[in-house]
Amino acid sequence: MKTFSSIQPPHSFHSAPFFSSTPKRTQVPFSARVFFCHAKSGTNESLNIKLLPQTLLIAEKEEAKAVLTLFLKKQGLSNANATKTINRSDPFIDHLISKLHSKHKTWYLSGRELTTLEIRDVLISYLESLFEEHGHILVDVVENYPNPPVRDKSAEPIHPPNPSLVVESKKLKAVSEVSGVDPAAGNLRPHFVYLMQLGMEIDQIRTIIRKFPAFANYSLDGKIKPLVEFFLELGVPQEKILIIISKRPQLCGISLSENLKPTMEFFESLGVDKKQWAKVIYRFPALLTYSKQKITESIAFLLELGISEESIGKIITRCPNIISYSVEDNLRPTAMYFRSLGVDVGLLLFKCPQNFGLSIEANIKPVTEFFLERGYTSEEIGTMISRYGPLYTFSLTGNLMPKWDFFLTMGYPKSELVKFPQFFGYNLERRIKPRYARYARVKSYGVKLLLNQVLSLSTTKFEEVLKKKLKKLQNEENEETVK
């Protein structure tokens, strides 16, 4: 294994889980202008829901409920209280779905179906931003959406000041002073002016400071500008650099020479493509903020699975999020589960590392149970996931169930899906149904095509195959007539 001794862990950065495990007890002032915004159907902010299949909307709502439940439990709520909140939050769930549609509007319009991980990434990011803004009153915000909760401050008990809260209060006050600066007054700090000249809005800067107060005191020439120029040299477009900084402002506090560049060199020694750094960093900015311990722990586990260093580099290039997954909470249990199905775990992780960020209980087991209930054996399910890695990343109710129901009308034996599980990766309305309708018209003449042939061939090739099959049958019939 390559050495990592030259990389010093960032002083104030460590492995960052999807959710903060320690709820913040300081009540952040309520800001209705950010949170209580209605997403209107048919506008630029969201899709007209009439464009989407009802089964897809139902599946997305169930996924949103699952994400919100897990998020609330991570903030300290009991399972019963989290469930109670979910049952009272239908308008908020609809709001989450509107956020999902707004984020990936072009994908929906093109018929692209989101995977479970893609849905979760959008919703988790949004919920974390809300928690940063509203703190421990988030439950009230969720239950009362879209109406701000009203609190009777006179009825609240008075407690002696907590030293840690006093410090937090001072920090919030300092943030308020900085983030409340009026650009028209001409007293913005140099790095704020610089970022605004690059295209960042003042409200974006305020949001960054609320999430990461240290950003307010960073030096333009010592921190911000060198990082921006370095990313430009890597080929990151200027507008994407602003997005990267907004997502992970901690990057600005890391030393280029002592931390960031050595970390990148280490990943390159494993095979991360130098030419792909712009895409890798934009896709997952947090990658370069993890500690030496976190990175080496993740790499060691991948090596333990028998994955070569070169392959690890390719995995990180395609899915840098893999470094964020906990070895003991995600990677190892998921590897054990897929191994129980007879899957080559190393190969599966190389093909589709996104599987290892899924919840075993909420995402993986339900898919296995779905196929077991339909008569497939564990071995056959293992073969399916081995042949088509993304199988488990699809929504059960939004993807697998409706496609299974249509498959039953196609006249193929169930074994055909073991041979060609990629069936579940094709769009039901845009690909599967039209292709089968065309095939069905010649099927009655005796033309037979495998499921693979019906779906995977290009339109031109598909038509050529049908014509050849029909011509062959006609020739055989003519020969029989002559005899």
UniProtKB/TrEMBL annotation:
Similarity remark: Belongs to the mTERF family.
Keywords: Transcription, Transcription regulation, Transcription termination, Transit peptide
PANTHER family: CGI-12 PROTEIN-RELATED, TRANSCRIPTION TERMINATION FACTOR MTERF5, CHLOROPLASTIC
Keyword Transit peptide: yes
GO molecular function per UniProt: nucleic acid binding
Protein name from the UniProt record: Transcription termination factor MTERF5, chloroplastic
Xref: SMART domains: Mterf (SM00733)
Pfam families: mTERF
UniProt GO BP: DNA-templated transcription termination
